[in-house]
């Protein structure tokens, strides 16, 4: 049964169960700072020029107080202040919480968000030398502001939460939310949404749901996107009844569920109850004239294709068009790839042509499926024609596509074309991987050119690509088929020296190769 967020208390025990264990490490009654920071309205205390010389104290060390006053002097010239701040740091000066807070206030005042994010990212970097915590920084900002305090704290906390979330430092992100609340400032619902979504994508679903349950304690009310995120969370967990209850919560809050929420629920149904269940829900939504988008159809099509129910998937695609929706590359792609996997290559190609005629641009995943299909039925000319056509159309072709074509060229004995394809990949900044290099090595062995194969093997290692057991097995097979028994022995020793244990396939290809090459 779903309970309203208001019915949940902000208890440490509950939060601990869902990774919010550090939220209450702070005391609610924050002590006053022992060192006061100049505010915007104050004029800095002037110091005699002779006393300011080199901005150093009598001990010869930079004085944080003088740095603070210099930053205050430069508050109307933010770029000059930032340059001064960084120049001191490059010179070995370690900024304390007060100089850091002063610089951050300047960036906030002038809405220099990129500079602010960069500075905060550097501050929370684990390798950064600093003697204060994020909590200390927020407290210093709060103490030093007499104008727009809430705005500055909100801006900084929003940035800190997002930076931590992107780096998957979720405990730290949650700490920021709680600390901001303790300072009497409401966190942003948009920032909470961002954090919840990041948690879900990182499979920290319980933590995301827990934040939702505490929104009322933060003084926040969920919006439509918040509820959609929670629907996604429950669907990912397979808690479909709880996901469905969120729609009632939205109605109670006066919200109208959007297409994203419904599509997310349908996706959950397809994943846990099967595509038939998702399709029934989709038809009910359409019948009730509730908001539905292309994604809802796409997830149903994908669900049927995953179960290889290709006729059902094709029927949904047809209904999608009849309802006035234009299928995107993902809807078409799911069915095209399914048809290729099922061996219905002609139907896949026909559907691909229909997709292109509708003005939908193909992608490398779809192209690689069709290329692989042509390769399996021995239609090398069709494969090469499609590859060249896609290049002329400006379609991005990844290393998988290139490897399929390279493999076909190797089988055709056209190693010149293989070398050209390898060079083309490098020119397009597509870094060849171990599979690409292994294909070329095998191609040279098929042509009876072991030294060229070894040269490619050496190039692969020089480029930082670590050979895998498949690569070594190709080498072992090639040497064996050519009767190069000494090279086979040396290869086995080389593998041992590099911590690679030969497997059953290694010895099988050696025996088979020696027999094939007349070495038995």
From TrEMBL:
Pfam families: PPR, PPR_2
Repeat positions for PPR: 223-257, 293-327, 328-362, 398-432, 433-467, 468-502
UniProt KW keywords: Repeat
InterPro entries membership: PPR/CCM1_RNA-binding, PPR_rpt, TPR-like_helical_dom_sf
Cross-referenced PANTHER family: PENTATRICOPEPTIDE REPEAT DOMAIN CONTAINING PROTEIN-RELATED, TETRATRICOPEPTIDE REPEAT (TPR)-LIKE SUPERFAMILY PROTEIN-RELATED
Protein name listed in UniProt: Pentatricopeptide repeat-containing protein
Source organism of this protein record: Linum trigynum
